[in-house]
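can u do me a favor
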């Protein structure tokens, strides 16, 4: 298996990269779209960026919103026509609470557009599990608690949900499909001592990969880093031990447990990733990115309520340059590193390119 989390994937789309700047009049389709089909979720994780009051993400989110079925089918048809390569379903809410997810993924299954989803895993059962196993490229389940009691406390769900999720994951891997099953361990002070045992347990039930990520507790990078500082030796030791014991060609451990400075500070004045991975929200608004979704002041690109996504996307290029990340994005950004790489790529001096 090749590298799954490498930031170099985007450099396989040369034509798209060349089209990004304002100097080039072309608009090419996004490579990937994150769709938030619903804002409903039965879990209430204390750190959920869409619910935590101290995090800006989701500030204008309406919890009951979901994309109407006809609109979802129109979006999927548009993506197919436009040549969008992939769709990731994510929150807002949990995509598996979306009432038309079966219809949406059945349609995608017979299209060239690849799909994947994030989920809490409690609804990964029945027909949806079968379709995802057979046709989805990957599925990623977020986990924090390490047993029924702790999981219920993290998520305000009834006891027994942890056992249910673990059983769902195990059953999912026994279906004969090709879907790659990953878990992200959201790491905080309480579960930090359990990282190694969680990895061991998840490997034993057949999960393909584990990503260990820090829980985001603040918009301010220094506050995040200070929260995680004392946990670093404990978490890193366990990750290393787990890598030595469990990592092999069928099981990947991805260490994303790191400080967050690189994701906050930005010096560039336009954002390449807006044109690479935009977000369609459950409110039928198109947003710049995951980190500004449901922010109507700073993240809104426009609405597709009364027009197709395809018409909206290709209508004018100026909309992609309204945001100045050096001023408007002084907060967590998932793709800051990627944006910096792309700017460096586009800014390479032509006269000196041959001197590699
Ligand atoms: S937060 Fe990041 S991805 Fe979003 S608009 Fe700003 S720089 Fe771009």
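np, heres the sequence
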């Amino acid at each position: 298996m090749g590298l799954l989390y490498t930031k170099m994937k985007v450099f396989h789309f040369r034509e798209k990269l060349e089209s990004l700047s304002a100097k080039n009049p072309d608009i090419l389709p996004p490579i990937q779209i994150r769709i938030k089909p619903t804002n409903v979720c039965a879990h209430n994780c204390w750190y959920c960026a869409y619910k935590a009051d101290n995090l800006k993400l989701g500030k204008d989110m309406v919890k009951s919103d979901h994309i109407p079925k006809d609109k979802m089918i129109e979006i999927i048809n548009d993506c197919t026509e436009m040549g969008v390569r992939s769709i990731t379903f994510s929150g807002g809410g949990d995509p598996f609470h979306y009432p038309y997810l079966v219809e949406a993924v059945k349609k995608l299954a017979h299209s060239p557009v690849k799909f994947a989803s994030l989920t809490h895993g409690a609804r990964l059962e029945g027909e949806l599990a079968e379709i995802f196993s057979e046709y989805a490229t990957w599925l990623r389940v977020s986990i924090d608690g390490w047993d029924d009691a702790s999981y219920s406390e993290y998520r305000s769900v009834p006891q027994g949900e942890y056992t249910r999720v673990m059983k769902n994951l195990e059953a999912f891997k026994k279906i004969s499909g090709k879907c790659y099953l990953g878990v992200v361990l959201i790491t905080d002070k309480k579960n930090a001592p359990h990282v190694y045992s969680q990895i061991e347990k998840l490997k034993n039930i057949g999960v393909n990969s584990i990503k260990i990520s820090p829980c985001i507790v603040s918009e301010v990078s220094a506050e995040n880093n200070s929260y995680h500082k004392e946990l670093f030796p404990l978490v890193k030791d366990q990750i290393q031990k787990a890598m030595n014991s469990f990592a092999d060609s069928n099981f990947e451990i991805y260490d994303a447990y790191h400080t967050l400075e690189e994701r906050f500070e930005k010096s560039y004045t336009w954002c390449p990733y807006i044109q690479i991975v935009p977000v369609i929200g459950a409110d039928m608004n198109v947003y710049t990115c995951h980190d500004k979704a449901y922010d109507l002041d700073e993240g809104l690109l426009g609405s597709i309520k009364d027009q197709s996504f395809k018409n909206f996307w290709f209508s004018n290029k100026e909309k992609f340059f309204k945001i100045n990340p050096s001023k408007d994005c002084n907060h967590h950004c998932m793709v800051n590193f990627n944006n910096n790489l792309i700017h460096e790529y586009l800014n390479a001096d032509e006269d000196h390119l041959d001197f590699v």
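Residues 266, 271, 273-274, 288-289, 291-292, 323, 325, 329, 333, 335-336, 339 surround iron/sulfur cluster (CB under 6 Å). hope that helps!!
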